[in-house]
Amino acid sequence: MPWLSRHRHDPLLTGPGRAAAHELTTGPRSHLPGFLAPTPRSPLTALDDELEEVRRTPAAIVRRDLTAVCGDEPPPGLAPMLRAPRRELDRLVGDLRRYWERTLAPDWPRIRALLESDIHFRARSLTERGPAAMFAGIHPDLTFDQAGGLLRITSRQTALPDPNRSLEGRGLVLVPSAFAWPSLYFKTSAPWVPVIRYPVRGIGTLWESPTGPTDLASALGTTRATLLHLLTTPASTLELANRTGLAPGGVSGQLHKLTRAGRIAPHRTGRIVLYARTARGEALCH
Fold it and tell me: Count of alpha carbons within 13 Å of 53, Cβ hemisphere only?
């Protein structure tokens, strides 16, 4: 709600001559056109790379996806895209970039830190508990039969015309999202790698103000107690700085002290270092 209340009346969405991007993402539809959200190739994919992939979508795929979502009578605002997909994709990408800059870029470091923390947590869960437990922990609508190699998704959307899909060796990408709660979104159609987008773990903490347990403060100091309290899920220095309002340098120094004391441990994920409580840290918090 804090994010939505700031941006729900953005002129890009509500002004005259609303763009195709608005028509594609609103209305009583069960899903988005596949080309609008290509499967990420890497956790470190940059915005420019993703927008360029949208821009390069073949015209036949654009028309196929629009028909699948809108039927034979698309909204008037999407008629130009059916007639000239290449030209309209250039405009669409421009609108998506402007929307990003106005509504997401200012909060992206905070959101990205939460997403990266989730990726670290799921990878650790997969390693320690196996795929069945990992999938069950992602969402109650996901169950995995490891013996049969069957992943079952309880869809709350309209019944699918072909509910049984084979991945045929194409793999499966899991993408945490700050905007999916409480639903799951999935895509198995070619040419993309199959993908499931799910609510990021800890989404309820994204906008909350920092508070720390007073019983730990007397032993560790207020700042270190607050940081240890916030590490319910692994987090990066930048995420903790955003959530506490402290300078990243100050947070880094306090994390090093907690690491030397054996209360937390760093784990590298790509270019990001995430901190997680150790068993000693968990015992101190309970």
Answer: 15
Measure the CA–CA gap between 155 and 62, rounded to whole angstroms. 24
Domains of the chain: 108-202 (no CATH), 208-285 (1.10.10.10)
**Strands ordered across the beta sheet of 195-199:** 173-177, 195-199, 185-187
Nearest partner of 44 among 273, 236, 268, 270, judged by Cα: 270
- Give, to the nearest 10 degrees, the angle between helix 237-244 and helix 108-129: 130
What is the H or E stretch that residue 120 is in?
A: helix 108-129
Q: pTM for this structure?
A: 0.71
- How crowded is the C-beta side of 118, counted as CA atoms within 13 Å? 23
Closest-CA residue to 99 (of 192, 36, 29): 36
Q: What is the pLDDT along the chain (286 residues), one digit of tens a residue?
A: 778 888 887 776 666 556 677 777 765 556 778 898 889 888 777 889 999 999 999 999 999 988 888 877 777 778 888 889 989 999 889 888 988 998 888 888 778 877 877 887 888 788 888 888 889 889 988 999 988 889 998 866 656 667 788 888 888 999 999 888 888 888 888 888 899 999 998 787 777 654 445 566 656 788 888 888 888 778 889 888 888 888 989 999 999 999 998 888 888 766 778 888 887 787 777 6
Return the C-alpha torsion angle 265, 110, 113, 50, nearest 10. -160
Instruction: For tokens 């409480």, name the residue.
Output: 182
